[in-house]
């Protein structure tokens, strides 16, 4: 225990945060945010954080590199709202890729202030795999028609808000039709075609876009492009965001919590169950990354404290350590534009809390030993 305390003290000394203010990047910078794979709550949260960071650090505009698949989803609605509320111009660009057309990608293109695609890419929607000529029951057919009406209305609203034509919307949503980049330009669905990012910046220079209630002229000359890096913890959480995996994590968490309630004193199953449920809430986008990170940290510190009260042969401490690791990885793997907390401060706070918990744990154990020793001495021989 003494070597662990000494190690924590050394870590605290090395990681004590410096007091100061960092200067924001110049306004002639643009942030490139890659969106790959299926759009899920984790990716939607990442996009929101990056756009918020770009606003705070005064980037000129944000480029969304759309290499994604997927259909209409709550995560897509969340991202559309983020784009609409952005104070910076959002440029959507579809690079050369082999993926089929995607309805999610089409919605993001229409919501963006400037929509561009590389030649030989597809715009529109891939025909649904289950779109067969088999007639649906009346209730399912009515629900499907209602959904299509809502999607059509939303897509028309997004396109018209950016001054684009909407004659193609019905074909895309209802018939699953797709168009080439050149056809999309002729239809008035997107703004320009570009071979790559350099060509995009060249063609976007001098264009005016409408952001909220103001008109902004894009200046891309001598522009520095900064690319966002997707945190490794985020990539890992995307696996948990898979509905098939999520349901098993939920079942495991509930079963372990029930076991904890049924078996008196079995704290370990409850701790593992809580970790599973918080992971599921984070991966599903039901709680934000800051909430998930600090929840894991607080839970980890409480479990370390419980290790001194409940005899579990170190299993509770292991659960606490795992919870702390999850919390630190989540907090360090995300940017929080609304919080003025640096990575060093997070490590410092967690290290301080862990040191306090270990010290308190040692104190409780000493008091407990003295108490038992006193009782043994008072008991008659």
UniProtKB/TrEMBL annotation:
The chain crosses the membrane at residues 271-287, 293-310, 346-364. It comes from Candidatus Nitronauta litoralis. This is NfeD integral membrane domain-containing protein. It comes from the Bacteria. Keywords: Membrane, Signal, Transmembrane, Transmembrane helix. Residues 1-22 form the signal peptide. The lineage of its organism: Bacteria, Pseudomonadati, Nitrospinota/Tectimicrobiota group, Nitrospinota, Nitrospinia. SUPFAM superfamilies: ClpP/crotonase. Residues 249-358 form the NfeD integral membrane domain.
């Amino acid at each position: 225990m003494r070597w662990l305390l000494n190690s924590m003290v050394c870590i605290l000394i090395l990681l004590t945060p410096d007091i100061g203010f960092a200067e924001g990047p110049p306004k002639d910078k643009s942030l490139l945010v890659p969106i790959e794979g299926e759009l899920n709550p984790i990716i939607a949260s990442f996009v929101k954080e990056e756009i918020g960071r770009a606003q705070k650090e005064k980037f000129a505009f944000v480029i969304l590199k759309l290499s994604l698949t997927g259909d209409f989803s709550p995560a897509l609605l969340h991202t559309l709202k983020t784009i609409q509320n952005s104070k910076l111009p959002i440029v959507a660009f579809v690079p050369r890729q082999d993926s089929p057309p995607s309805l999610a990608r089409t919605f993001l293109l229409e919501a963006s202030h400037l929509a561009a695609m590389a030649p030989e890419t597809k715009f529109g929607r891939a025909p649904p795999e289950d779109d067969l000529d088999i007639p649906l029951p009346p209730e399912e057919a009515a629900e499907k028609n209602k959904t299509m009406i809502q999607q059509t209305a939303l897509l028309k609203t997004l396109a018209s808000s950016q001054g684009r034509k909407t004659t193609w919307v019905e074909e895309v949503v209802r018939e699953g039709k797709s168009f080439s980049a050149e056809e999309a330009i002729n239809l008035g669905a997107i703004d320009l075609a570009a071979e790559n990012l350099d060509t995009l910046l060249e063609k976007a220079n001098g264009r005016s876009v409408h952001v909220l209630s103001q008109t902004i002229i894009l200046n891309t000359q001598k522009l520095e492009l900064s690319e966002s890096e997707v945190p490794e913890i985020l990539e890992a959480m995307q696996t948990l965001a898979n509905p098939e995996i999520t349901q098993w994590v939920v079942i495991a968490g509930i079963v372990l919590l029930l076991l904890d309630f049924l078996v008196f004193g079995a704290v370990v199953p409850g701790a593992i169950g809580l970790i599973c449920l918080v992971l599921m809430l984070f991966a599903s986008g039901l709680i934000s990354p800051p909430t998930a990170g600090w929840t894991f940290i607080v839970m980890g510190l409480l479990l370390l404290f419980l290790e001194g009260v409940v005899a579990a042969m170190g299993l509770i401490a292991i659960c606490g350590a795992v919870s702390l690791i999850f919390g630190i990885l989540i907090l360090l793997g995300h940017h929080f534009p609304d919080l003025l907390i640096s990575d060093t401060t997070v490590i410092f706070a967690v290290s301080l809390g862990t040191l306090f918990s270990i010290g308190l744990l040692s104190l409780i154990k000493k008091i407990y030993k003295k108490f038992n020793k006193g009782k043994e001495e008072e008991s008659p021989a």
